[in-house]
Design goal:
It contains four helices and two strands. It is mainly alpha-helical. The chain is elongated and about 90 Å long. The protein starts with a helix and ends in a 45-residue tail after the last helix.
Length: 163
Amino acid sequence: MNHRFYYRMNTVSRYILFFSLMSFLSCFYFGIQFISTVNAEKAESLYPYDFMCVADKSDDKLLEKIKAKYHVTLTEYPMVRVANADKTEHLEGRGETVIQGQQIGISESTYYKLKKTVDPSFKKKSLNLDKAGKRIYVVHQQDRATKAQPVDWYYNKKTPTLH
């Protein structure tokens, strides 16, 4: 009689623990994932283009062929390719290959043009950057659902190594 009572209490306590854990996970872990997905901004509101291609003058013929064949509207913005030593969310351990990061660098005036294309009512305001144009600012524009992306974690440096 005592064994049945003891094992029944064991079983009931396991069920309570299991269902409490599942309730907790469904409310907090899965709920946060669901809410962040619901709050994600639409891609159309972030980018004024459907497709982006990094090209230089040697690609003009190819772009003209694509333009003629598919009847696309081609808009060009000046940019530079920015490469850094690392673009991951953690430091690589020994034996892991350091992944090279690739970003697109644009000027402040190109930034204003892109903002105006996305939102025609956009008013230009000062970004409080270097007036003399001697400094380069590395900025990642992200929406609310995107995790922060560090520019350079290589050897815990304060300033990134950019090329």
